[in-house]
Amino acid sequence: MNTINMADLLLEAYDLADAINESEEVRRYLAAKRRVQEDAQAQRLIREFQRKKELFDDAQRFGHFHPDYHKAKEEAEAFLRRMRENPVIGEYMEAEEQLDELLGEVSRIIARSVSDTIKVPVNDPRGLRKANKRRCG
Predict the structure, then answer these.
(1) Residue 40 domain-assigned?
(2) Is the pTM of this model over 0.85?
């Protein structure tokens, strides 16, 4: 049986990371991120969303018992939809989701090659992914 030592394994991991960094998904994500950072309207929307999110986070600490919980949640969700309608932010969010999908799939492939029972952490804050299938700066 051919065994690989830890140094060789890490070198292979670095090669995989380099290949991912050269992918279309990373190129598109970085370009979209730069456009968001340079766009004044996008930055204003992001700051406003962060304020709404802070209000929701404060309400969320107490959960449904907080008197403004539902209002704060609805406002944050509505504003997130509004942000997505901004072409610069929408493109960024789509690129981010595609890159996250790629990274999640690579993680699942590696984990499943070891065992079907290994849990694979995924970045899916909105709960969009289905199990074993397929996310402003």
Answers:
(1) yes
(2) no
